[in-house]
Every structure is written in C-alpha cells, then in structure tokens.
Write a structure and sequence with these properties.
It is a single chain. About 25% of the residues lie in helices and about 40% in strands. It has three helices and nine strands. The strands form two sheets. Strands 1, 2, 3, 5 and 7 form a five-stranded antiparallel beta sheet that branches. Strand 2 (about 85-90) and strand 3 (about 90-100) form a beta hairpin.
C-alpha cells in the first residue's frame, strides 16, 4: 500500500507510463475486483449504483411533489414586537405585522378580516390590498376589541385572509390587553 493518501492513483499512472514505454497493454494496476479480473468482464451497474439511483429518484419525487402542492400565497401574521397594547376610543388595540408572498404569476386582491371575537374591528395600516405576480407585500394591522366584549387580559383573535374572494388562511393570533378595570 502506498504511504500517500488512499485513492491517489499515482501508482496506476506510473505503471501505465511504464507499460506504454515497453509496448504492453495498460491496466496492470487498476481499480477492479477479483471476479472482473478472473472473468474478464466488468459491470458498472452494481448494487451501490442501483441504491444511489433509487435514493436520487425518491428525492426528485419529493421535490416535484413539494413544488406541485405548494400554495400560491404564503401569509404570515405576527404581533408587532415591542408593543403590548394601546387604548383607543373604541377599545383596546394590538398591532400586527403581515407579510404576503405571492408565488404565482397572477395578481391577488388581499382582504383581511376578524372572524372572532364578534364585534372586533380591523384597520389595515399599509399597502397590502393588492399584490402583484411574484411579489412580497408587507403591512401592519390594527385589531381593536371593544371593552364591552373583552373578557380576559390575554385572549385569541381569529383573522381570516381572503384572496380574490376565496379564503386562503384562517390564523389565530394572541391578543394582549390590560386587566379589566385598569
């Protein structure tokens, strides 16, 4: 065994040069198996190659499936960091950030509304009404829950996002409010 790194092929190259100089057939030293030397034939379609092809086909099928099943819109709604709540004349309000990613070649008309609690209102603060093909739109939302329907300090608000009249997602977000009576 050569003291150099394995698989360096320096000895194979040197042997082939010598064989060329003396006029003999190349390949006295080569990568092969004992069976291939005895039978005189080699096969490239080994079990390892078949396994690699099988794994590769499974990975390609997974990627194709993921692309085929992905939605046209990716919507994220999160509470604005660093703010708890604000009080307005209509009740307690929380700010939310919304990001809409259009992964299609079509225009989308985005509508956001409050599904629950009943009586809560929503104001959009930013340009998230229409989103063009392969575009990203960011904006802010202000959800206001009147004191008359607010029951606890921390609750959940359900927001519904529709595109071109069809519901795309229904998201539950946390709603923070002061203790009643403060």
């Amino acid at each position: 065994m050569c003291k150099r790194a394995s698989n360096c092929t320096a000895c194979i190259d040197a042997c082939d040069e010598v064989m060329d100089k003396v006029g003999l057939r190349r390949g006295l030293i080569r990568y092969t198996s004992a069976t291939a030397v005895q039978q005189g034939k080699t096969t490239w379609l080994t079990t390892r190659i078949k396994a690699y092809v099988g794994v590769w086909l499974v990975l390609v099928a997974i990627v194709v499936t993921l692309f085929a099943l992905r939605g046209e819109l990716d919507i994220q709604i999160v509470r604005q960091s660093g703010s708890l709540w604000t009080t307005t004349a209509d009740g307690v309000a929380n700010f939310y950030n919304i990001q809409v990613i259009n992964k299609s070649d079509d225009m989308h008309d985005i509508q956001v509304s409050v599904a629950s609690p009943a009586g809560a209102t929503l104001r959009t603060l930013g340009p998230i009404r229409e989103i063009g093909p392969n575009a990203i739109a960011k904006g802010r939302l202000l959800v206001i829950v009147p004191d008359s329907i607010r029951s606890t300090e921390n609750s959940t608000v359900t927001l519904v996002v529709t595109s071109n009249g069809a519901e795309v997602t229904r998201t539950n977000v946390s709603f923070v409010a002061p203790t009643k009576g403060q």
